[in-house]
Amino acid sequence: MLLISQAMLWVAVIALAVAVLALARQVGVLHERIAPVGALALGRGPQTGESAPRLTVRTLAGGTVEIGGPLPAGPLRLLFFVSPTCPICKSLLPTVKTFAQSERLDLLLIGDGDADQQLEMVRRHGIDPGRFANAPEVGRAFQVAKLPYAVLISETGVIAAQGLVNSREHLESLITAYELGLRSVQEYLAQRASHSA
Amino acid sequence: MTVDPSIAIAARLLGASVFAAAVGGKVKHRHELAGVVANYRLLPERLAAPAAWTIVGLECLAALSLISGAWLTAGAALAIALLGGFALAMGINLARGRGEIDCGCFQSGLRQRLSAALVARNLLLAIILSPLLAAGPGGASALQWIDGLGAGLAAYTLYQVLGELLSLRHSSAELRRRFA
Fold first, then answer.
1. Which of A64, A67, A29, A32 has the alpha carbon at shortest distance from A46?
2. Cβ A24–B153 below 8 Å, yes or no?
3. Least confident range of A38-47, A141-150, B132-141
4. A87/B32 touch (CB, cutoff 8 Å), yes or no
5. Could you give the 3-state DSSP secondary structure of residue A61?
6. pTM tops 0.95, yes or no
C-alpha cells in the first residue's frame, strides 16, 4: 500500500514539474519570436545615409573587390562581418547565403582573424572563396564592435542600412529599413511610438 | 557515515541525466563547440578544439559511471570536478567582465550568457552529488528505489526548468532594454 501511494505521489510531482517545464519552454519560444524586431544599429562609425568607406580588399580566392563607390552591377551589396570564433556567425551563415540569393544581393563576407580557420569555415559552409575577404581594415573602417554585423550598401555606394544581426528577421529588417527609408530599428520604434501617442 | 540509498539513487539519476544532456547538447552543436571554448579565453586558441572534446569525453565517463554505479566514487569525484571547473571558468570570465559570452550550456533554444546564477547552479549540483563520495554499496528496498527514482527524475526536470528560467531572465532583460 505504502509503495503504491508513494509511487503515485512521485508520478504526480514529476507530472507537475514537466508541466512547469513545458510552460517555461513556451514562454521561451514566445521570447524568441518577439526578440528579433530588427537589426540593432550601434551608432558608431559611418552612419546610414552616408557614403560607405572606399576600400579595396583581397578575397580568399586571390582576386580583389572594391567596397564603397558606385557598384558596377545592379544589386545591393550586403557586407556580412564574421569570425570563426563567433558561434552565432556560423549558425547564421547558411541563412545569410539563402537570404542573399532570394533577395538578389551581392554578398561579401568580411572576416577578421586567422586565415587557416577562415579557409576551413569557407570550406565547411560551402562559401565561394571569391566572396570572402579576410580584411580587418574593413571592420575598422565601419567601426564594427559586435558580430555578426551586416551592412547594406546601395547601388550608389551609400550605406542603406546596417546593424547587429542575429536572425533572418534581422537581415530582412535591413531590406525593409532600406525600402522604408528608415535608418535603424530604433528610428522605426520611435516613429511607431509617436504615431500611437 | 553511509548515505540513505534513496538519496544516492536520486543523486546518481540527476547527475547522469545532467551530464548525458550536456553531452547531447554539445554533440548537436559540435561546430560551435570549439568557438565557445575559445571564447572563454582560458586556453591558447589551438587547444580549444581538443579541450572541448576532452570535456565531452569526461562528461560521458561521468554519466556512465553515475548511471551504472561502476567506480561510483571516482565517477562522482569526476562529476564534481567538472562542475567545479565550469564554475571556475565562468567565474574567471565574469570577473574579467566578459559575462556576455555564451556559456556553452546548449540547454535551451535561447543563448545563455554567463551569470552568477549559473555559477551557483553548478555549485548546487556539486553539493547534491557530494553524498555519492561516501555512498556504500548497500542494497536498496523497493520503497527506496521508488523514492530515489522519483526524486531524481523530479529534480532533473526542475533543473531544466531552472535553466529555462535563467535564459528567460536574460532575454527579457534584453527585450526591456530594446524597447526602452
1. A67
2. no
3. A38-47
4. yes
5. coil
6. no
